[in-house]
Design a protein that fits this description.
single chain; 417 residues; alpha/beta; FAD/NAD(P)-binding domain; 2 domains; 5-stranded parallel beta sheet; 4-stranded parallel beta sheet; 24% helix; globular; binds flavin-adenine dinucleotide
């Protein structure tokens, strides 16, 4: 619903979409508090060695570039068709953006958002009633030293992403027997296989689980290690039907980097190198650590117990719903994204995230007035989110908050290049 300035907007998470949301709000004259559990762009730091699929012009906003250029006339933006690594995206765009005067003093790092509620109101009070907006938001924050305190705001925008919460690797998406005890030892993201963590994978056997682009990235890195060493081995396991490709190819893919990764990973799965074994149509039943190695029981007829040194599970991520469990947020029972957006995305179902059309302001509304989910978290378990979709959401959302149909600050700015 519309909120006039001056008003205070709490933006949860200083990832790429949190920063862009805050910038847009500042341009419109709102007070913002950006609350980040780690450091700015924490998720992107984690995959800093990975090259992005989308060219730079899809990974920046005209507003962001204008803000950085106003601060630093010497700023050289990357070429619009440059394919940056996550690390380059950070150093050449996201961090300069965060350091602009518009944002710098408004970011609280090392501060975790634990819960969001409303003063005077509980979840069951005034169901789906717009008058809930009159009670301000009450936000429980925890500092790095464990100290807790309360923040307040008129609007809350949750851009905390999904990267902090990996799915379970067991059959059916629940923990494999023993997985919960080994949660901290299993890799659920992108370990630096060819970098700092090389010693953990070189001359050892790794079990890789998953059939998305993250698994494909790890498969290719592990195979590079195989070719550089004598006794590195990999077992790649997916639930895809035997004989099919582990990674879905997009016909005439417009993103060449993505097409190349898909082709490379699928070729590995169908290859004949004994050091790289691929198993389709299976899943993990149990996992146990004995004498420093993992014993992993997998499904099949007959099943098998694999003995490996490291386990990488790239089985997707899920949103942390606990942050807003005291609010009236309508969630999709399949994706766990907010319901209206999830329904719109389902109707547009496509294998290629580039085909995703703008979902419109209405898709961002939910029963809790002035509470919104944007960015990758708004897609829930749907992994098709692109930064460019987030910018559309930011623009759409402020037509609602600012109550100005057609408002588009991005269009008013000088375009890149
Ligand atoms: C390997 C890889 C490659 C990718 N390549 C591309 C690409 O080429 N193009 C593209 O468009 N997208 C790509 N993506 C998707 C990319 O993640 C998103 O575009 C973008 O990072 C999403 O930004 P976000 O702000 O929604 O979430 P995030 O980047 O995850 O940011 C969320 C922030 O919230 C913080 N946070 C989480 N919980 C809390 C809490 N409780 N309290 C406070 N702070 C919290 C996190 O620390 C983080 O800083 C890629 C993703 C991966 C993993």
């Amino acid at each position: 619903m519309a909120v006039d300035t001056p008003a205070r907007i709490a933006i949860l998470g200083a990832g790429p979409i949190g920063l862009e949301t805050a910038l847009y709000a500042r341009f419109l004259g709102y007070e913002v508090d950006i609350i980040e559990q780690g450091r700015i762009g924490a998720s992107v730091h984690d995959w800093s060695d990975v090259r992005m699929f989308s060219p730079f012009h899809m990974n920046c906003s005209s507003l962001g570039l204008a803000a950085i250029e106003a601060q630093d006339p010497e700023y050289q933006a990357p070429a619009k068709d440059a394919l940056l690594t996550g690390g380059e995206w950070l150093t050449r765009y996201l961090l300069p953006l965060a350091q602009t005067d518009l944002l710098n003093d408004h970011i609280q790092q090392q501060t975790t958002v634990v819960h969001v509620g409303r003063s005077q109101l509980r979840k069951r009070d005034l169901p789906a009633d717009d008058s809930r907006h009159s009670a301000d938001f009450r936000i429980l924050l925890q500092d790095a030293d464990g100290t807790e305190r309360i923040g307040t705001s008129d609007v809350v925008i949750d851009t905390t992403g999904v990267y902090s919460q990996a799915n379970w690797l067991g059959v059916g998406g629940i923990p494999a027997v023993g997985e919960r005890q080994l949660r901290d030892q299993i890799h659920y993201r992108l370990p630096a296989i060819l970098g700092d963590q090389r010693d953990r994978f070189a001359e050892r056997t790794t079990l890789l689980i998953g059939s998305g682009y993250t698994a494909a990235t790890n498969a290719v890195a592990l195979n590079n290690l195989i070719s550089e060493t004598t006794d590195t081995q990999v077992i790649w396991l997916t639930r895809k039907p035997a004989g099919t490709d582990p990674i879905r190819s997009i016909p005439d893919d417009r993103l060449p980097e993505r097409a190349a990764l898909t082709a490379q990973a699928n070729a590995l799965a169908h290859g004949s190198d004994e050091r790289f074994r691929y198993l389709g149509e299976t899943g993990v039943l149990s996992i146990e650590q004995r004498e420093g190695r993992y014993h992993v029981e997998i499904a099949g007829d007959p099943g098998e117990t694999l003995v490996v040194d490291e386990v990488i599970a790239n089985v997707g991520f899920r949103p942390d719903l606990s942050l807003f469990q005291e609010l009236q947020v309508h969630q999709c029972y399949a994706s766990e994204g907010p319901m209206k957006l999830a329904a719109t995305l389902l109707a547009q179902d496509s294998a290629d995230c580039l085909d995703q059309a703008a979902t419109g302001p209405d898709s961002l509304l939910n029963p809790e007035p002035n509470f919104y989910l944007l960015g990758s978290k708004s897609y829930g378990r749907n992994s098709n989110f692109l930064f460019a979709h987030g910018l559309q959401q930011v623009r759409d959302l402020f037509t609602v908050i600012g109550d100005r149909e057609g408002l588009d600050l991005y269009a008013g700015m000088k375009h890149l290049g």
